[in-house]
């Protein structure tokens, strides 16, 4: 699969790009550069600058999505070209996809009012997941 992705994007196929894509494809959630480096380095030695260059090329070609999370870190994931929105835990960065698009009526209204052809949008909602809430001391308003 990596060969077809890289070829269709006019990117040279390299072992390191293939390894980075394999790591991202296997990941259940988006990963930081450091996490990618740790997982990719299990099979072959790669320095961070190589990973950054590869991710920049993959992002430029829209193969990988780059997202800045609320924790200030940049996360990367494979772009599966599906319309989706996310609920992200601001403590552990767990990401849950939202099944419905709450922006469709707003998008239609904006298109009518402005004459724009809406080509896309991005929605990320931040909160604290139930697992992290178990480990967070509750704050009683009476205290």
UniProtKB/TrEMBL annotation:
InterPro entries registered for this protein in UniProt: FUR, Fur_C, WH-like_DNA-bd_sf, WH_DNA-bd_sf
Binding site for Zn(2+): 89, 92, 129, 132
Bound cofactor: record note: Binds 1 Mn(2+) or Fe(2+) ion per subunit. Binds 1 zinc ion per subunit.
Domain of life: Bacteria
Binding site for Fe cation: 83, 104, 121
Keywords noted in UniProt: DNA-binding, Iron, Metal-binding, Repressor, Transcription, Transcription regulation, Zinc
Gene3D superfamilies: 3.30.1490.190, Winged helix-like DNA-binding domain superfamily/Winged helix DNA-binding domain
Matching Pfam families: FUR (PF01475)
GO molecular-function terms, A-Z: DNA-binding transcription factor activity; transcription cis-regulatory region binding; zinc ion binding
GO biological process assignments: negative regulation of DNA-templated transcription; regulation of secondary metabolite biosynthetic process
Cofactor: Mn(2+); Fe(2+); Zn(2+)
Family designation: Belongs to the Fur family.
Protein name: Fur family transcriptional regulator, ferric uptake regulator
Organism: Anaerocolumna xylanovorans DSM 12503
